[in-house]
């Protein structure tokens, strides 16, 4: 890999910062989601309840350990750190006129620490941290007023950090709104009290037309907000580069039946290309017209929206990749979960402890498909293995399984680059152990750095370098040659 390739790691505010009430921070949607397990879902509560464990409230306390943590990233040789700004630290309610100065100061301090270690920040503007007040009072992203609140936040941070940040992402995994998984965390549309966060229990039941309409209306407002944010970022600092961020996965037909081939083709369009086409090509793609018509979805838009989308195309495509999936139109074949996606078991591949299919070659396939379609720079901003790590008696973590996972994926990244894909960076997910988004657990660990906390948030909080820390350090130093 060439010297310009950016090596690093990725975290998100709601999964690492903690300090949920410190220095004027407001409540985010994540602050109302309880912990869960592999078999028990995380749940949404309208009020924060005594006796419930909300992982975002304390997380790994990056808010008070950021200097120590960034120093560890620097020791690994990170050239880029993907992180998110918590919207509620800047505008605690979301609809205020003026920002919270202590929130602004915190990220100045974080970016200064990154600069000390020659780490370039890649900042996600909205990563499942929507102000809870905007969900309660406005109905989340289904309300067009939220666009203006988001743009006020964007203008504030683009201006405030224009000398510290020039790489931005708008919405984390925007395409989760295409499925019911994104209704709460992505769209900010509140379910009934006590509902499971991703609606996994409802996935096998038909969605009402009203629910689907609200979700796609919310997505439209995010498209407009994203495009306006891109234009604003370019206006405030011409050096700014802004990307979209999607949860991507290659889709395979379960059999060579024409029905399964057509289903795989449709799922690639719907789950991977729809949001990418709008953000990169600046218009709704033709194939969604039939879907909207058959599902009685009528997007309410303004006449200027088409022009806004055209003028706000992103500069690069970024995505998360954990798994691929097989699909079939045979309703009798049992489905399995992945990263907010459902598919059927691929008989040629193994799964992680949490049932996510492991498919390194699927990454090469997907990188080629993305670059073939869009011909703009591509960045892999999430990829990793959630696993249970064991501390040995001498205080070490021998995570050879994680090294093997990452090594196999980097090898396929290199193959894709030989194929001609313009892949510009790699930030593996959870470069330090953090709260799992899907289950709220700490024991589902991704990091190169172990954090001594259990699922209830109990422990010393001590940071310990895993074997993968030293492996990734060598990988970066050798530009990916020493794997």
From TrEMBL:
Source taxon at top rank: Bacteria
Keywords: Glycosidase, Hydrolase
PROSITE patterns per the UniProt record, alphabetical: GLYCOSYL_HYDROL_F1_2
Pfam family, any one: Glyco_hydro_1
Ranges in a coiled coil: none
SUPFAM superfamilies from the UniProt entry: (Trans)glycosidases
Annotated family: Belongs to the glycosyl hydrolase 1 family.
Name by which UniProt lists this protein: Family 1 glycosylhydrolase
Record lineage: Bacteria, Bacillati, Bacillota, Clostridia, Lachnospirales
């Amino acid at each position: 890999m060439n010297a310009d390739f950016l090596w690093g790691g990725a975290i998100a505010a709601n999964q690492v910062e903690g300090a949920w009430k410190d220095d004027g921070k407001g409540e985010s949607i994540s602050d109302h989601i309880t912990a869960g397990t592999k078999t028990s879902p995380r749940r949404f509560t309208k009020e924060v309840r005594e006796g419930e464990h909300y992982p975002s409230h304390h997380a790994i306390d990056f808010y008070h350990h950021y200097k120590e943590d960034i120093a560890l990233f620097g020791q690994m040789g990170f050239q880029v750190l993907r992180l998110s700004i918590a919207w509620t630290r800047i505008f605690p309610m979301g609809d205020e006129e003026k920002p919270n100065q202590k929130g602004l100061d915190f990220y100045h301090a974080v970016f200064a620490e990154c600069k000390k270690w020659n780490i370039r920040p890649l900042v996600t503007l909205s990563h499942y941290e929507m102000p809870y007040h905007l969900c309660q009072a406005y109905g989340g992203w289904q309300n067009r007023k939220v666009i203006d609140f988001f743009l006020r936040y964007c203008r504030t941070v683009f201006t405030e950090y224009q000398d510290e940040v020039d790489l931005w992402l708008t919405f984390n995994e925007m395409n989760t709104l295409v499925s019911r998984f994104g209704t709460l965390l992505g769209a900010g549309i509140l379910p009934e009290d006590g509902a499971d966060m991703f609606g996994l229990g409802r996935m096998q039941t038909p969605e009402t037309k009203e629910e689907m309409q609200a979700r796609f209306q919310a997505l439209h407002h995010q498209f407009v907000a994203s495009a306006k944010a891109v234009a604003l970022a370019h206006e405030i600092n011409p050096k700014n580069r802004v990307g979209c961020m999607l949860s991507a996965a290659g889709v395979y037909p379960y059999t060579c039946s024409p029905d399964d081939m057509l289903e795989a083709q449709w799922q690639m369009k719907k789950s991977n290309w729809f949001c990418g086409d709008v953000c990169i090509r600046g218009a709704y793609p033709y194939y969604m017209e039939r879907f909207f018509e058959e599902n009685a979805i009528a997007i309410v838009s303004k006449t200027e929206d088409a022009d806004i989308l055209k003028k706000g195309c992103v500069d690069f495509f970024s995505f998360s990749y954990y798994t691929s999936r097989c699909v079939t139109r045979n309703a009798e074949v049992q489905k399995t979960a992945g990263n907010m996606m459902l598919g059927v078991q691929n008989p040629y591949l193994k799964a992680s402890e949490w049932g996510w299919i492991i498919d390194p070659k699927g990454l090469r396939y997907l990188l080629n498909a993305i670059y073939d379609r869009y011909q703009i720079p591509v960045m892999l901003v999430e990829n990793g293995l959630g696993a249970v790590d064991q501390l040995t008696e001498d205080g070490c973590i021998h995570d050879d399984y994680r090294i093997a996972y990452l090594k196999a994926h980097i090898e396929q990244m290199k193959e894709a680059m030989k194929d001609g894909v313009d892949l510009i960076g790699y930030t593996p997910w959870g470069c330090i152990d953090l709260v799992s988004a899907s289950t709220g657990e700490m024991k589902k660990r991704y990091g190169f750095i172990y954090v001594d906390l259990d699922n209830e948030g109990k422990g010393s909080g001590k940071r310990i370098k895993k074997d993968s820390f030293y492996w990734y350090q060598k990988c970066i130093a050798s530009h990916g040659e020493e794997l």
